[in-house]
């Protein structure tokens, strides 16, 4: 499995752990919430979904299955497929959440891992944050060394571009320092368990938070079954 497909699998399982979704809704969440997937296509998502279904980590359902009536019979349109996390899928996602190796520190992976920190234990969060900081500090040192060696050969614009890159890395290091300090101080920002929160919402208790407003109109050409 490639790194790209691995992080997509992780993101899909994480989003579906929050709630079942149509492929259209899932793609929208990936596009808007996880910047690394802004440019990816349905041609990338659906093979991933099919593989997760084949592994037993997701199930495919159609609208109206809960009532035993095909959605097409109710709407006159083709039924839309809903993807739902299985118990095995939840267990697999928990295993992925516990991983804190070097892959979790890389540019493409870190943002996605960070998006699910609310579901991640504090010790794993700390290892990922400290690993990311160490990786950036190494990068920053190399950038400074390279700039010192080549400064005299660079024109003003190339020099400014390299300085801009260094400042971006320095800002992220400062941000990571703040997060690590917060974690060490014991300020736990974990989100509530999605299943528990869903039960509270169904009972009318939103815990002071606004209710989720769904209703994004799905693409009628997407997620259909004949």
TrEMBL record:
Keyword Coiled coil set for record: yes
Gene3D superfamilies from the UniProt entry: Winged helix-like DNA-binding domain superfamily/Winged helix DNA-binding domain
UniProt domain Transcription regulator PadR N-terminal: residue ranges: 12-95
Coiled coil listed as a keyword: yes
UniProt keyword terms in alphabetical order: Coiled coil
Coiled-coil segments on the chain, per record: 126-160
UniProt superkingdom: Bacteria
Compositionally skewed regions (Basic and acidic residues) per UniProt: 183-192
Pfam families with a match to the protein in the record: PadR
Alphabetized PANTHER family for the sequence: CONSERVED PROTEIN, PADR-FAMILY TRANSCRIPTIONAL REGULATOR
Protein name: PadR family transcriptional regulator
């Amino acid at each position: 499995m490639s790194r790209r497909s691995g992080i997509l699998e992780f993101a899909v399982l994480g989003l579906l752990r929050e709630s079942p979704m149509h492929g259209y809704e899932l793609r929208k969440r990936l596009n808007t919430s996880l910047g690394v997937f802004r440019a990816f296509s349905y041609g990338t998502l659906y093979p991933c979904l099919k593989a997760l279904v084949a592994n037993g980590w997701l199930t495919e359902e159609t609208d109206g299955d809960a009532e035993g009536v095909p959605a097409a019979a109710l709407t006159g349109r083709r039924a839309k497929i809903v993807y739902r996390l299985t118990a095995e899928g939840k267990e697999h996602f928990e295993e992925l959440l516990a991983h804190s190796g070097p892959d979790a520190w890389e540019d493409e992976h870190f943002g996605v891992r960070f998006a699910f920190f609310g579901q991640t234990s504090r010790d794993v969060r700390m290892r990922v944050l400290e690993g990311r900081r160490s990786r950036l500090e190494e990068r920053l040192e190399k950038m400074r060394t390279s700039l010192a060696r080549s400064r005299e050969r660079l024109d003003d614009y190339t020099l400014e571009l390299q300085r801009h890159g260094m400042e971006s890395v320095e800002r992220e290091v400062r941000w990571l320092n703040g997060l690590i300090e917060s974690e060490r101080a014991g300020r736990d920002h974990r989100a509530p368990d999605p299943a528990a929160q869903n039960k509270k919402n169904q009972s009318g208790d939103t815990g002071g938070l606004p209710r989720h407003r769904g209703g994004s109109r799905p693409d009628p050409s997407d997620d259909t079954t004949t």
